[in-house]
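Morning!

This is the sequence you dropped in the shared folder:
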Amino acid sequence: MAQTGKVLAFDFGASSGRAMLFTFDGEKLSIEEMHRFSNDPVMVNGSYHWDILRLFFEIKKGISKTINAGHKDIEAIGIDTWGVDYGLFDENGKLLGNPYHYRDGRTDGMIELADQKVGKKYIFEQTGIQFDFFNTIFQLMAAKEQHDSTFSLAKKLLFLPDIFNYFLTGEMRNEYTESSTSMLLNPYTKQWNYELMGKVGIPTDIFCEIIQPGNVVGQLSDAICEELGCPKIPVIAVGSHDTASAVASVPVTEDYSYAYISTGTWALMGVELDAPSITESTYRYNFTNEGGVCGKIRFLKNIMGLWIIQESRRQWEREGKELSFDDLEQAAWGATPFESFIDPDYHDFATPGNMPQKIRNFCERTGQKVPQSEGEVIRCAAQSLAMKCRMVADALEDVQGKKLEAIHMLGGGIKDTMVTSFVANATGKRVVAGPVEATSTGNAAVQFMALGKIKSLQEARTIIRNSFPIKVYEPQDTGLWNQAFEKFKTIASL
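The structure's back. Tokens below.
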């Protein structure tokens, strides 16, 4: 008899969160949105923070809505978020302040300081993680250097999904895929790298036991059950880093060479490996080896994704222009192609602000035509993102020594059909787009695997392929895109 069941997946992105109910009938998954909410970080006294208690309120609201809708029979709950960010707790288990947002500017200069202390090459060899200003190692170094009082009082550190799990269950654990983004983990043993911590001045006793995806963190506490009127439901450690959950949902049912791009605020592009790849070439290209579900390694690069388009729209809204994403896409289609490019990963684009002006400044500084209209700005950003994906695809082929046959694009970003089609054109690869709710789907799949209802990752991917629609984009105008790529390479690099 086929296994059936229901689980609740919470997926937090940088701009919104959702509670998704997944029902498994033994052959296919179905999905129902129970609760969706905005995620609104707060700038206060010059620092950028996550509103962690408000987000936990939304989790409780999502559970309540699910229970009140008649789904008291949910068998598990799983939570995923973005990576690197954390909260510190005192000796009584109390949270010491709102967690910092990874885009906060306090880490300026920390990569250089780490290089002075131990050397970048040493850090990469010890962790296999790419250098990004927001990595947890640099956040903690900043807290130490700036004499952050919460740092000196801290007894435990929990990453964002760990915090929510703790608030629900009272159990403190560090989930593996999330921990792997910190640049503090040994990629081979999958345990904390205490030697590295000691060399850069980070205390080793604040970290918790690492738990692998598919293990139970704990049961909903008595207080939560009483408050929400729900039964004792297990909380399962899923691929708590959202990209780990998204990659678990890649709907591949046959063996061929592909790359994935998990799209949203970020575009995470890479391949799935069975073991870390820590070599001279991966260091040179600044690839990362992050943890995946079922022992896999997510070998990838972070690319600035739709953040640039999202932040541009926010700026125009501040100026009183009410423009939907569809409005902007239509305007971009009307703009002349390939007139100007940006490097999406240029540091100016990583922080909030007047993004259209930042784009214009970059184009002027690099001697290009300066985009003026909304359509020209969005066209510049969209085609630049696609070109950066081409650059990463070329690097992946170089490192692996083999050609990629296709690219799987996942997540909410694929609703931007312009960017998705541009990626096919720029890379010259067939793009398979879907599922849209990739992260929550991968989250749910790991829960069903933990419950014994799905037997393996490959079975989960087959079920996902049969459950949700996909759309295929074939490359168009590749000659023109190849020609434009030569121009792009003069202003961007890996």
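Headline: The radius of gyration is 22 Å.

More detail when I'm at my desk.
O.
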